Amino acid sequence: MHAVGFQHEQTRTDRDQFVTVYYQNIQSGLEYNFVRYNQDTIDHLQTRYDYYSIMHYPMNAFSRNGRPTIVPRQAGVSIGNRNDFSATDILKINRYYECEDTTETDVDETNPDCEETHPNCSAWAARGECSRNPAWMLPNCPVSCQQCRPSSSNCADDNVNCARWASNGECTRNPLYMRTSCRQSCNVC
């Protein structure tokens, strides 16, 4: 992702909320690899911290003594073992380069789960609230947030990695992308 303009995940401005960096364990002269950038340098593109990013260092990156240099604050999370993009990596690239969503889905108008609960849903979705506030927006504004179940004839994943991402919990961590692009793996249809 460096080639398309991205830095390592642990250089985000908000990284200290998600990981602890142990500078005393980092090889001398390599501390720059753990510098946290300011908001003028990094745009999070309205995404959450992604432990599963291909751009995340492993726990012992640049260790001088075999001890961890970076440890997740969330228990049970494994970092730095990716061989492929996470769903959030793909979402960030698409947002950064303003790629249009090329997934075409047919909305099942008879689906009872596909109803807006508030008249301002479309305006809020246009302002980016589906990704900023997914816990409220996705269940209450499913049409505007493109969460409606597609017809059964379109029940397929758009990416070969969907099943793996779903098993890693991406359906709940990144619902805006996953429920649209990984419909079958996330049991949306």
From TrEMBL:
Q: Which stretches make up the ShKT domain?
A: 114-148, 155-189
* Every Peptidase M12A domain range: 1-100
Q: Which Gene Ontology terms describe the biological processes this protein takes part in?
A: proteolysis
Annotated membrane-spanning segments are none
Q: How is the cofactor bound?
A: Binds 1 zinc ion per subunit.
Entry EC number(s): 3.4.24.-
Please indicate if the UniProt record lists Iron-sulfur as a keyword: no
Q: Which GO terms describe its molecular function?
A: metal ion binding; metalloendopeptidase activity
**PANTHER family attached here?**
DISCOIDIN, CUB, EGF, LAMININ , AND ZINC METALLOPROTEASE DOMAIN CONTAINING (PTHR10127), METALLOENDOPEPTIDASE (PTHR10127:SF780)
The molecule here is called Metalloendopeptidase
Organism equals Stichopus japonicus (Sea cucumber)
